[in-house]
Amino acid sequence: MEPILELSGLTKVYPGGLKALDNVDLTIRRGEIFALLGPNGAGKTTLIGAVCGLVRSSGGTIRAFGLDLESDWRKARARIGLVPQEMATDMFETVYRAVSYSRGLFGVSPDKARIEEILRSLALWDKKDEQIRALSGGMKRRVLIAKALAHEPDLLFLDEPTAGVDVELRKGMWAIIDQMRARGVTIILTTHYIEEAEEMADRVGIISKGRILMVDEKDALMARLGRTEAHIALAEPMAELPAAIAGFPVELEEGGTSLRYRGGDGTGKGKAEVAEVTKALTRAGIDYTGIETRESSLEDIFVSLLGEDG
After folding, report:
1. Each residue of 249-268: pLDDT tens digit?
2. 165 falls in which pLDDT band (50, 70, 90)?
3. DSSP state at residue 58
4. Cα separations (Å) of 216 from 160, 212, 234?
5. Residues 7, 63: Cα–Cα separation, whole Å
6. Residue 142 — φ and ψ, nearest 5°?
């Protein structure tokens, strides 16, 4: 299947020498949800701006829907939607008129039924005649999404779509994103809330200092880089590791009163090894009073990769 978006050698250097994008190669598949993760200043918004025509790249190529964005920008851009981080609309305009106007900006013919469908899907229909300034922060964010969907894009960028909204509204946004994907929209989102990527994304890309560090299927990433960590509280302190468990990835902590295991590969191997460690302790006559075990999250992997890049 032809990819919906291809970036090759994409580079952006700002006046003064700041390299916001450094030879970025990235391919987005049609119909997927792709999460682009990175700290502030990593290049996420610059990358989105380059694709959406808001930032002029310094080098490389961008192809969307098989079209070169430099030569066929108008045709390609008409099929791309963007939900920016910041409100960029007339706050004194009504919800309905703002969304209808966004549709007209792309030369799409008026369609009252489609506008109503979008507003209803975002729980905005009963707010259609209200001025945007009168809405809550979460509702304003939904208006941005409605505006981006008004011209029925095939590729949608969501730049920090749930920034500043509470947990309940954030979960509502996740449901909306899932509905958009079900309608065939390809979605690229940036987020500081890594649980969003863990909940929604098919694939994850990690960007730092303008460079893509890794792109992988979310589940494969978790399996390959995930770890199990366990803390075993010992009944009596030990001065050194007993030979029975010396072959496992364990070390003594807290003055010899606790054993820490850190290993596995995200496939369940870690849990099995923790069980073997406890059996070995029992066979060696070493008593323990408790075990705490946790699996690494996508956030743990993200922080670890950024640490290696720093």
Report:
1. 888 988 889 998 887 765 66
2. low
3. S
4. 21, 11, 39
5. 7
6. -65, -35
8 A C-beta contact, residue 118 and residue 194: no
Percent of the chain with pLDDT over 70: 91
Contact 58, 13 (CB under 8 A): yes
Q: What is the DSSP code string of 163-214?
A: TT--HHHHHHHHHHHHHHHHTT-EEEEE-S-HHHHHHH-SEEEEEETTEEEE
Nearest to 98 by CA among 159, 143, 32: 143
Q: What structural domains does the chain harbor?
A: 5-223 (3.40.50.300), 227-295 (3.30.70.1560)
| pTM of the predicted model over 0.70 | yes
Rounded to the nearest 5 percent, the helix, strand and coil shares of the chain are 40, 30, 35
Q: Which residue has the higher pLDDT, 69 or 225?
A: 69
φ, ψ for residue 84 (rounded to 5)?
A: -75, 170
